[in-house]
Design a protein that fits this description.
The protein is an all-beta fold. The chain has one helix and 14 strands; from the N terminus they run αββββββββββββββ. The strands form five sheets. It has a four-stranded mixed sheet, with no helix packed on it. Strands 9-10-12-14 form a four-stranded parallel sheet, with no helix packed on it. A two-stranded parallel ribbon has the order 5-6. Strand 1 and strand 2 form a beta hairpin. The longest helix is centred in the N-terminal third of the chain and has 5 residues. The relative contact order is 0.09.
């Protein structure tokens, strides 16, 4: 489907060094080195004190497999614009407290929590997302995440949501009521392999500018009812692969003119609401 490792190769943090950063690993002070190498495998606790205002947090904690505790309470990110893959593949993180983070200037959160396989809860109610343009892969492969409330998210400028929740296979509840998708052009694999989702409310979605929706709800094999009655589109849409693998999907409600649908897989009941 994709290869994220190719995406993180261009991440490079040049702002941090041993003069402007205090790095405590397992409660011992270390000289700062990019990506916390070596000794990634033995790290279980990090406290990071940064004495400058950073602009780039791309891949900052990438691949610290045993990290369980992360103290970012003194982390000033008011000038940061890039959080791409910030916690990527932090396999053992179970909880991240980001309450104190000022994210008003962030424009990119691609893959931010991707690969955090033991993460059970993420509290993002304080996140200011009004300037974000890329949320692709953001929660990809968060395999133990059971609920996610993003009702406070402002997505008015987001253009890419591909793979955003892909393989969140224990996710039972997903609140996207605030989502504005008017500018989103890419939604492919957005909810793919969310095996435990039984219902999905996309009533706030506008797909007029969406060019890529292939496999959007692929393999959501417990999804039974999908209400897309407010998902408005005025152009012809190819839905052939959008619901592939949704074996229990019985009812789809669409607010799309029947003549605008190019292809649709066999679903027991389709209701068109004009």
């Amino acid at each position: 489907m994709y290869n994220i490792k190719e995406k993180v190769q261009d991440c490079d943090i040049k702002e941090l060094n041993e003069e402007n950063t205090e790095l405590y690993i397992n409660r011992k002070l270390y000289k700062y080195k990019s990506y916390f190498t070596p000794e990634k495998e033995g790290i279980y606790e990090i406290q990071l004190i940064i004495k400058i205002l950073m602009k780039n947090c791309c891949c900052l904690f990438y691949g610290i497999n045993n990290l369980q505790s992360l103290d970012l309470s003194l982390f000033n990110i008011q000038n940061v614009t890039n959080m791409r893959f910030m916690f990527y593949n932090c396999y053992n993180l179970e909880k991240i407290d980001l309450f104190s983070m000022n994210t008003q200037n962030i424009t990119n959160m691609e893959g931010m929590f991707s690969g955090c396989k033991h993460l059970k809860n993420i509290y993002l109610s304080k996140f200011d997302t009004q300037n974000i343009t890329d949320m692709s892969y953001m929660f990809n492969n968060c395999e133990n995440l059971q609920s996610l409330d993003l009702s406070s998210f402002n997505t008015q400028n987001v253009t890419n949501m591909s793979y955003m929740f892909c393989n969140c296979n224990k996710l039972k509840s997903l609140n996207l009521s605030s989502f504005n998708t008017k500018k989103v052009t890419i939604m492919n694999y957005m909810f793919a392999q969310c095996f435990n989702l039984q219902s999905l409310d996309l009533s706030s979605f506008n797909i007029n500018n969406a060019n890529f929706m292939s496999y959007m709800i692929y393999d959501c094999n417990n999804l039974q009812i999908l209400d897309l009655s407010s998902m408005i589109s005025q152009k012809s849409i190819d839905l052939k692969d959008t619901f592939e693998g949704c074996n229990k999907l019985e009812r789809v409600v669409l607010n799309i003119d029947e003549s605008n649908i190019k292809k649709l897989i066999n679903i027991n009941q389709i209701i068109f609401v004009y």
